[in-house]
Amino acid sequence: MFKTTVENLLNDALEERPDLFLIDFSVQGDNQIKVVIDGDNGVLVEDCIFISRAIEHNLDREEQDFSLDVMSAGAAAPLVKQRQYKKNINRTLEVKTESEKFEGILSNASDNDITLQWKVREPKPVGKGKVTVTKEANIAYIDIVEAKVVIKF
Fold first, then answer.
1. CB-CB contact of 143 with 132 (8 Å)
2. What is the maximal distance between C-alpha atoms in the chain?
3. Residue 20's beta-bridge partner residues?
4. Which of 72, 90, 121, 140 is close enough to 43 for a disulfide, judged by CB 3.0 to 4.6 Å?
5. pLDDT in tens, 74-123
6. Domain of residue 106, CATH code
7. Are 79 and 106 in contact (CB under 8 A)?
8. Domain encompassing residue 8
């Protein structure tokens, strides 16, 4: 009952802000509410406050004791929703499948798969020396075991 009420309040808040989307939601024992959100344009502290207030201001602490944590998906957290790939186009991703590991620039994110591109140095087809070649891989979402944005400083 309590979880359903919280979930409905959360969904209403997300409907108000279509740029934000849910990554994870749980209500633990002792009514510990945990919400993890992401946004098409990233997540600001104000976005977390908006979601937090939408839930907290519609619950009665006299009736129910609870704790509430609203946070953004961390920069190093694996991507879990297709929508997260679209917002990370042109960033470097590390993608693991069952059999391979890729690191490259995310150049496309369709409804079914992603396209990664990277450059490698290969021996020239003719003659001595090496040449830089752009490689590309299309990886279906269902084949992705884990994908993370590579943070470079």
1. no
2. 80
3. 39
4. 72
5. 878 999 999 999 999 999 999 999 999 999 999 999 999 999 999 999 99
6. 2.30.30
7. no
8. 2-72
